[in-house]
Each structure stands twice: as structure tokens, then as C-alpha cells.
Write a structure and sequence with these properties.
Layout lengths: L3 E3 L27 E7 L5 E7 L6 E8 L4 E8 L12 E4 L3 E6 L3 E6 L10 E4 L13 E2 L5 E4 L4 E4 L4 H10 L3 H16 L2 H14 L8 H14 L25 E7 L4 E3 L6 H13 L9 H18 L5 H15 L19 H21 L5 H29 L15 H19 L31
Antiparallel strand pairs: 1-14, 2-3, 3-4, 4-5, 5-13, 6-7, 7-8, 8-9, 10-11, 11-12
Helix pairs in contact: 1-2, 2-4, 3-4, 3-9, 4-9, 6-8, 7-8, 7-9, 8-9, 9-10
């Protein structure tokens, strides 16, 4: 399909020139070497990447124009030792989720093209981490998406991000920016699977207290939900959150970044499919303030405070809306997978925890209303199923975190007791459960219920009750 796409070059700093022989006649200076690439992805993004000869020695400057977002970012990297001729070796690669900027022997910058708003999704690697296995330090070109041609050997390589290498990088990283970028890559690009989630939970259990600029529990839950839910309905990826962060102020060492806004391209075509349909959808989201399209905890938090205020002032009087909310909670609990098995390792909230029922049902109601406003081509019943499924999966993920922690420290359902002294493992689990409570309350997320059986009441708990067990910690 050929379509007419108008790109406002005035906003990019680029200009069209004639390729006739005399196009540079009358100019005193030689034309600068221009390295320019145009990349697209089936996910609906389009980028123009370019670099020119540096003005200052020891610096490399390149720009990425995110046409699907309406802005560009210009990066300047300061290098200690660099031959000016090496700039011509700067290579742009399309990795479908990332635009990779590779300068052999110096750095590998993975620019998150899918979610470029926050630099928290970018990797900037140097040294051994910046090497692409199998490539010589020689001139290479990228003739195809996720592929490079090594001109010195004539070999064509397919590029992919290695999951095990990412996990190793996650464990050795000390900077919050690198950790967050790795989590996003694993969960949103490589893809969230049960095996991968278990590995990440292990890392979270060891490092939850050493992340100071983001909450790894929140990021794990939100990103995993995004990966699981978005394939269900077209454009759902524009409405669900992919991160718990609102902004990111951490800088990449030795890299400066400036953002410039630009006019959106105009796509003169109707009723198209595939890439063009997704590109149009991305452009429409930008026009209607993309940040307001995504469901967020602030929406839920405001309604939750209203509902709690009503509960305090009106007592036990049940409104029609509260009845509907509790019915949604029952639908979520009926989908809760740990209830389908007889053996449960983790003692959970009881079904009688009325506030958790209300919060669970309220999240379904608010998400359903949000999706109904923006998914007008999807039926009401289907939207309700999506909302119930989202909250059910949220509770499942929370339970999986707790279950893995219980297994790691060899605890059982009877461990938290007021009648005996606690062990070191119990104290560690208690601290982690407090972090779970903090993560959930910070985003107004419900916590999983226990199976409503009277015989189990003596071994179940709520997180708030644990504070009675260890009052001085």
C-alpha cells in the first residue's frame, strides 16, 4: 500500500536538496556527511534518525524524531578518546521496540521507540556491555530490521536481545536507571512469562529496599499486566498503564538530552490496515492528550476516597452503586486462580474483609467506565470481561509474589503467630509484606482474598494485623 505522508521538515532541521551535479555550486563549504535512517514498526511507530559531523571534538551528537509522538530528542555523548573519523561508523539499527545507536568500541544506546516519553526505558551501555557478539570492530551496515551486515566478512547477522543476558545485567546493575530499563525490556519487550516472572520476583525479593527512585513491585505488576492484557483488544495498549511512574528525572551519565516539539505528520489515507492503521491511532492519541487516555491510580484513588467517606458517614447503608461494586468483586474472586486448588501456601485476606471487596469491585467499575469512553466499537459485555480479567490477573500476580517469598524462606500458612517468638526468616518476610502493602496502597491496588472457609480463619491474616506482631521494627 502506497500512501501520502506529509512530514513537516521545518521542525526537524532537515531540508530537501536537489541531487543534480550543480547543487553545491556557489557554496564555499563542502556538504557535511549526513547519516539518516527512517525506521518503522508494526507496533505503529515511525522514527527518523540522523547524525552529522560533530562540532566539538570528543562529542557525538544524534537525533531521533519520534514522528508518532510529535517531538524529537537530541543526544550528545561525551567521549574521552575518539578519532573524529570514527563518527562515520555510527550505526542506527531498528530492533522493533528500540532504535539502537551503535558506535563500535564506544557505546550502544537503546532508545525506547515504543515509549520514549521517559528516559527510564533507555539503555546506555559502554565497555564490554556495549559489544554486539559476533561483530568485528569494523564497518557494518543495517540493510534490514534487526539485522546487520559485517562488510569485512560478508556475514549477515540477525540481532535479538538475549533474555539470560538481561537477567544477568539486572542482578549486577547498581543504578536505578539501568534496573528500571532492564525490567521494562524484560516485561514489555521480551515478554512476561511465568518462568521469567519467577526470576524477576527473586531479584525483587533481594533488591526491593535498594531501589530509591522507583518501586520494583509496582513496576513488575503494572508492566506484567500490560503485556498480558493488550493483545486482547485493538487499541487497549493506548488505554492501560505500562509503568507506575509519572516522570523520571534521573540522567544518564555523560549524556545530555534535549527535547523539541514538532508538528505531527499528516497521513492522507482512509480505512487502511496494518502498520498505517496503528500509526494513525498513535497520532490520534497524541492529538487528544495521550497521558489522559491511560487508566491511572489517581482516577481510582479519588473514587476510593469518596466511597470510604460515604461508608464512614452513612454507616452500613448500602447504595445501588455499592451493590454493583460488590457484584464486580464477586466476579473477580470467582476468577481468582488460587481458589481453584485445595492447597494454598500463603495465608491471604479473608473474603470477609469488606474494604478489600469494595476496592476490588471499585477498580473493575472504574476501569470499565474508562474503557467504555474510549473503546466505542467494543460491546459493553466484552469491556466488562476485560475489566474483570485485568483485576483478576492483578490479584494473581500479587499472590504469585507472596507465594514465591513464602517458598524462598520455607514458611507455611501457620507461621505468623502471636504465641511464640519470630525467626529471622519470619522477620524478613514481614518486612517484605510491609513493602507489598506500601506498593499496593501507593497505587490504590486491591490485595488478594482468602478462600472463605470458617475452618481457616485461625491461620489467615491481614497485612495491617502483622504490625501487632512486630511493633518495634
Amino acid at each position: 500500500l502506497e500512501v501520502l505522508l506529509d512530514i513537516p521538515l521545518a521542525d526537524t532541521g532537515l531540508k530537501l536538496v536537489s541531487l543534480e551535479c550543480g547543487c553545491y555550486q556557489g557554496q564555499e563549504t563542502e556538504p557535511q556527511l549526513l547519516n539518516l535512517q527512517v525506521f518503522t514498526s508494526e507496533k505503529g511507530w515511525m522514527c527518523i534518525c540522523h547524525s552529522i559531523a560533530p562540532i566539538n571534538p570528543g562529542e557525538v551528537t544524534y537525533s531521533v524524531f519520534f514522528l508518532h509522538k510529535g517531538y524529537s530528542k537530541t543526544y550528545t555523548v561525551a567521549l574521552e578518546r575518539m578519532d573524529p573519523l570514527q563518527v562515520k561508523d555510527l550505526l542506527f539499527l531498528n530492533l522493533d521496540y528500540y532504535v539502537a545507536v551503535f558506535l563500535p568500541g564506544h557505546f550502544l544506546h537503546l532508545v525506547n521507540a515504543q515509549f520514549p516519553d521517559l528516559m527510564s526505558g533507555d539503555f546506555f551501555l559502554t565497555g564490554e556491555d556495549a559489544k554486539i557478539n559476533g561483530l568485528h570492530e569494523s564497518t557494518i551496515v543495517s540493510p534490514l530490521k534487526s539485522a546487520v551486515l559485517d562488510l569485512s566478512t560478508g556475514s549477515l547477522f540477525t540481532l535479538e536481545i538475549n533474555k539470560q543476558a538481561l537477567l544477568q545485567f539486572l542482578w549486577k546493575s547498581k543504578l536505578d536507571g539501568e534496573r528500571l530499563a532492564t525490567l521494562h525490556c524484560l516485561l514489555l519487550h521480551v515478554g512476561s512469562t511465568a518462568e521469567l516472572e519467577t526470576e524477576i520476583i527473586k531479584w525483587i525479593s533481594e533488591n526491593v529496599s535498594t531501589c530509591f527512585t522507583f518501586d520494583p513491585i509496582q513496576e513488575f505488576i503494572i508492566a506484567s499486566l500490560y503485556w498480558r492484557m493488550c493483545p486482547e483488544v485493538s487499541n487497549l495498549d493506548k488505554l492501560l498503564p505500562y509503568t507506575s511512574l509519572v516522570d523520571w528525572k534521573e540522567l544518564i551519565p555523560e549524556v545530555t538530552c534535549t527535547t523539541h516539539f514538532m508538528s505531527l505528520p499528516v497521513l492522507k489515507v482512509q480505512n487502511c490496515k496494518g502498520f498505517w492503521e496503528k500509526l494513525i491511532s498513535s497520532l490520534e492519541c497524541v492529538k487528544f492528550a495521550e497521558s489522559h487516555l491511560r487508566f491511572n491510580s489517581k482516577m481510582l484513588g479519588r473514587e476510593w476516597e469518596k466511597l470510604r467517606l460515604h461508608k464512614r458517614t452513612e454507616g452500613k447503608r448500602i447504595t445501588t452503586y455499592m451493590t454493583t461494586v460488590l457484584e464486580y468483586a464477586e466476579k473477580v474472586f470467582s476468577n481468582f486462580s488460587p481458589w481453584s486448588t485445595e492447597e494454598r501456601l500463603v495465608p491471604l485476606f479473608q473474603d470477609e474483609d469488606y474494604e478489600q471487596q469494595l476496592l476490588t469491585g471499585l477498580m473493575v467499575a472504574q476501569l470499565k467506565d474508562h474503557l467504555t469512553r474510549h473503546l466505542q466499537c467494543v460491546g459493553k459485555r466484552r469491556i466488562e470481561e476485560i475489566a474483570v480479567d485485568y483485576v483478576s490477573k492483578l490479584l494473581d500476580l500479587t499472590y504469585r509474589i507472596m507465594e514465591n517469598i513464602w517458598k524462598k524462606y520455607n514458611l507455611d500458612s501457620w507461621v505468623f503467630s502471636l504465641g511464640r517468638r519470630s525467626t529471622s526468616n519470619e522477620i524478613l518476610v514481614f518486612h517484605f509484606m510491609c513493602r507489598m502493602l506500601h506498593a499496593a496502597s501507593g497505587m490504590c491496588l486491591p490485595l488478594p482474598p482468602g478462600k472463605p472457609q470458617t475452618a481457616e480463619l485461625n491461620i489467615s491474616f491481614t497485612l495491617s494485623s502483622l504490625l501487632w506482631r512486630f511493633p518495634l521494627l
